[in-house]
Structures are given as C-alpha cells and as structure tokens.
Amino acid sequence: MRKIDQLLNEYGESHQNQTNKTIHWICVPLIFFSVVGLLASLPAGIVEAIMGDRPYANWATVFTILAIAYYVTLSVPLTIGMMLFAALCLMVAGKIEATATPLWAVSLFIFVVAWIGQFYGHKVEGKKPSFFKDLQFLLIGPAWLMHFVYKKLGIPY
C-alpha cells in the first residue's frame, strides 16, 4: 500500500461520523487559510532579504513551499490540487492585507473558531484528532479532503 493511502486511511478512521466530516469540510480549509494568513502577517525579515521586496516574500510562502515539498513525497497529483488551494489562500490573504482590516486579526479569529469547530466535531465523533498521535496529520487533513474531490472528479491521486 502506498504511504499516501495508508495516511489517508488512518486519518479517516477518526472521521467516520457525518457531522464530524461536515465540520471538517468547513474547518480544515479555514484552518489552513488562517495559518497562511497568520504567517503572512509576520515580519518578513530574512525572507524579504532572500526573495526581495515582492508581494509574496513572506513566511506564508515559505510554509507553502515546505508543505508542497511534503505533499510531493506522498502524491504528485494531490500536490497539484494542494498547490492550487495554497495559491488561493495566499491570494485571499493578500487581498485582505490590501484592505484596512488587519490580516492577523481576521486569521486569528478564523483559527480559533475553526479549531473550536474541529474539537466539537471530534467530541461528536468520540475520537481524538489524528494529530494527537502524529503531527503530520495536520497536513494530511487538507489532503484527505482533496482526495475526495479527486475521487468525485475521477482523477487518480
């Protein structure tokens, strides 16, 4: 069995309840976005020194590159979907940052509310979140959702 299949199956074991699954479809993408937003809000410092003064020269881009590198080790097709989603998150964060609303405040609010939702979903499920066992499941959650999108579209992952 491929490593990606093993990880997705293991992640799915604690996500059987329909309410928990529905909550995950909402909260996992929001948490991913909020992490991107929080990281984009950090002073760029050395990132700007290396990448130059570019719109996406920030810690969110560094995180995205590292996450994509991890996904490549698991599944190239899923990586493409995750790259598109990560790019969307970076673009939305950039749009929010361009307004008068502080990106860090929006992201922090989303992060807290989405994690409350996640923990409620696991309370309903009656199982602990997978990342309590292994932190890599924090990145598997978004890929788990993406693999359902791929299945629905008939795209092999």
Commentary on this structure:
With about 160 residues, this protein is mainly α. The protein has one domain. Helix content is about 75%, strand content about 0%. It has seven helices and no strands.
Radius of gyration over C-alpha positions, nearest whole angstrom: 16 Å
Please count the beta strands (DSSP E, at least 2 residues each).
0
The biggest beta sheet is recorded as: none
Number of helical stretches of at least 4 residues: 7
Q: What structural class do helix, strand and pairing data support?
A: mainly alpha
Percentage of helical residues? over 70%
Strand content: under 5%
First-residue to last-residue Cα separation: 13 Å
Any idea what the shape is? globular
If you average the pLDDT, what whole number results?
A: 90
* Number of domain modules: 1
Entry summary:
Helices cover 76% and strands 0% of the residues. 35% of the residues are buried.
Topology:
Blueprint: H1 3-13, H2 18-41, H3 46-51, H4 59-74, H5 76-97, H6 103-125, H7 137-153
Helix pairs in contact: 1-7, 2-4, 2-5, 2-6, 4-5, 5-7
Keywords:
single chain, 157 residues, mainly alpha, 7 helices, globular
